[in-house]
Amino acid sequence: MRATQRIAIVGGGLGGAAAAASLQQAGFEVNIYEQAAQFTRQGAGIHMGPNVLKIFRRQGIEKQLEAMGSHPDFWFSRDADGEYLSRIPLGEFARKEYGAAYLTVHRGDLHALQMTAIAPNSVHMGKHLLSLDESGDDVLLTFADGSTARADIVIGADGINSRVREHLLGAEAPTYSGWVGHRALIPAEKLAQYDFNFEDCVKWWSSDRHLMVYYTTGKRDEYYFVSGVPQAQWEGGDASFVDCSREAMYEAFTGYHPTVQALIANADSITKWPLLNRQPLPVWSRGRMVLLGDACHPMKPHMAQGAAMAIEDGAMLARCLQETGLSDYSTAFRLYEANRKDRASRVQAVSNANTWLRTQEDPAWVYGYELFDHPLKTEVPA
């Protein structure tokens, strides 16, 4: 046996970064291979609940994240006319009831912070994976730039179009869900002209669409919206997103409250992207390869828990590998799936149904989850 055992993570997004930090903290040698040439501050916000903040606490970045994010006291749901449908307490309530803060933040800012928790020189950019060859005692990774790497196990954290998933289960394109999302960032100063209450975290609903709105910084200088809108066909071909006109956005939210109209009016740039689905996978791992996050259980973003599930996956996988040791990776992979599948599948189903917090409900099963205190299920099929 080699003195050093190596883990390769394909994909350096939020899930891959979280997995690397947890695994390195557990003492494993980890390298991330990311196909992008560089990371950028992409124009998207994200929710981070107490279930994730407790993982970041162990990784040493909880306080820094709290300092950069916005801390809503409530998740409000309103109908298109502005009437409240629910008021879900967060803020100090979340700290007391769930054990950590609830915040919203810019995705790029969060990702940059995650990079500080990873060992220097362990992230390799511009590595587009071409092939995987499991030769018995390790895996050979070959990249488009001609370089190669070897690892004892490979973790596929490379999203809904995962090459690792493709290697395990064959090529199969995801299916279009019949829904699109719109995104825009708005400088908060542009909204000062209105006598509206631009709440910290509010989801506007009607029978078949919604608009989620929140601040992405603690300074509250950047307001973000993301929609879910039915659309029979995706017009963008293979593009991951297309530009959307303000006029098309108005049409999608005709009749909504003037607050929503003001947001659309002040969005300088709106993008639209297709929401994609996959059927539940028959396996999460095979041989020396294992999947996490959107590579494993993609979901619509309607519950604001997709990235959280990927981060939880990474932490649980690290916990299971620490339990068994890397030499018994097959048992670790079975433990991981046994301890993640029910929760991830439940979140996936609720998220895809788009019912989360529309009415007054108790979110404790999501936000109060204690990944490291949760006893491991040990009865796993061989």
How is this structure best described in words?
With 382 residues, the chain is an alpha/beta fold. The protein has two domains: 181 residues, 3-Layer(bba) Sandwich (FAD/NAD(P)-binding domain), CATH 3.50.50; 103 residues, D-Amino Acid Oxidase, Chain A, domain 2, CATH 3.30.9. The protein is 30% helix and 26% strand. It is built from eleven helices and 19 strands. The chain has an eight-stranded mixed sheet. A six-stranded mixed sheet has the order 7-2-1-11-19-18, sandwiched between helices. The chain has a three-stranded antiparallel sheet with strand order 8-9-10. Helix 1 runs parallel beside helix 5, helix 1 packs parallel to helix 9 and helix 9 runs antiparallel to helix 10. The longest helix is centred in the last third of the chain and has 25 residues. The radius of gyration is 21 Å and the shape is globular. The mean pLDDT is 95.
Descriptive keywords:
382 residues; alpha/beta; FAD/NAD(P)-binding domain; D-Amino Acid Oxidase, Chain A, domain 2; 2 domains; 6-stranded mixed sheet; 30% helix; globular
Rg, Å, rounded: 21 Å
**Integer average pLDDT:** 95
CATH architecture of the largest domain: 3-Layer(bba) Sandwich
Strand content: 25-35%
CATH superfamily of the largest domain, by name, is FAD/NAD(P)-binding domain
In which range does the helix fraction lie? 25-40%
**Principal-axes shape call:** globular
Runs in which pLDDT lies below 50 for 5 or more consecutive residues are none
Q: Domains counted in the coordinates: how many?
A: 2
CATH topology-level name of the largest domain: FAD/NAD(P)-binding domain
Question: For the report, how would you describe the main beta sheet?
Answer: 8 strands, mixed
N→C terminal distance: 24 Å
Category from helices, strands and their pairing: alpha/beta
* H-E string: EHEEHHEEHEHEEEEEHEEEEEHHEEEHHH
What is the CATH top level name of the largest domain? Alpha Beta
